[in-house]
Amino acid sequence: MRLRSVLISIITLLGIIVSVPQANAVIGDDWAFAYNNHLSPIAGFTPMDPARQWSKNGGASAEVRSPGVGQYEVLFPKTVIKRGIVHVTAERQTPGWCQVEGWKNGNDGLHVFILCFKHGGGLDDSRFAVMATESSPAPTIPAIPVHAYVFANSIGTVLANFNSSGFTNSVSHGGPGSGIYKVSLPMRGFNDPNGNFQVTAVGSKPARCKIAEWVPSANGQTVIVACFDGASMPFDTAWTLSYNRELPLIGESGPPKRYGYVWATPALPPMTNFNSAGAANTVSFGGGQYLVTFKTIGLHEDHMQVTAFGKGPAYCLLGNVWFNSFFGDATIRNVECYDELGALTKHEPFVAYTSRH
Known about the structure:
47% strand
C-alpha cells in the first residue's frame, strides 16, 4: 500500500573511494544489478543472466568470472560507483551466504568482488544477486519517498553516506568484538514500521550482517545492525545498509515504475508492504520458508534482494531464482532462513524487488 495514499495529510576501505558530500534529495547517479547464474569457476569474463541484469548506462552488459571456489568478480561496464554501496544476496538450495569482498572502478567499468560460503564458513560456489547504487543531491527534498544508505567500516566509521531527506546518517559501534552497530537515519517519518532495509557484510573474512532491531519514529529510522562470523559468533566487519520508502532498491525515481518491497512478518505492517502499482503483495509462511509474490509489477529485466531481521545469528537467502508469471507477478519460491545450526528457522526477512521498467 502506498504511503502517500494512506498518509497524504502527514508530511578507504578495500580500495574504494568513499568521501561523500551530504545529499539533499535523491537522484540515482548510477546503478546496476545482475544475477549470477554460473556455479563453477569461470576462467574468463562470461555474460550473466540477460533477463535479470541491467545498468543505467550500460544496459545488459554485466559479466562474471571466478578464479576459484566461492570467489567471483563481477564487471559492470560503463558503471562508476565512487560514493555508493553494493549489496549481494546468495541464491542456493543449501544454507550459506555471499558477501562483498570489495569493489573498485577500472577503465572498463565497476568491478565487484564477491565471496560465497557454505554454512560454517567454508568457501562454496553459489549463485547470487548483486547490485550497486550511488546517489547525489536533487533540488527538492521529498517528504515521503526516501532513499538512504550507509557504508561503514568494522569500527563504525562512516565511509559513504546518503540521505535524500537532507540529513546526515550516523553510526555508533557497540564495542570491540560485539558485531553491533546502531544506525540512525534522520528523516520525516512515522511511528509505525515503514519502508524496507537491506544489509550486506563487506570484507575478506567470512561474515554476514542483518537488522537485529528496528525503532521507527516521526524523526526517522533507528536500527541495530548485527554481524556474525562463519561460526555464527558476533564479529566486527564492514557493511553496507540501504533504506527505501516508496522508492526502488536502486534509488532511481522513475523509471523504474515497477517495484515493491515487503517485510515478511506475520502482521504484514501496511507501510512495509509496498507495491508501485497499488496491488497487494502476498506472503505465504512456512517453517523458515516464505513464498513472496509482488503482484502485477513483474517484468524482466529485474532484481531482488533479501535481508534477515531479528535476534541471533539466523540469516536469510534466495532459495531459488525469482520468476515472472503470465499475469505479470514477480514471485520468489522461496526466501529461506537458517539458524546457527544450518536448519530452517522462522524469521522475518526484508524482501525487495525492482524491474528496470
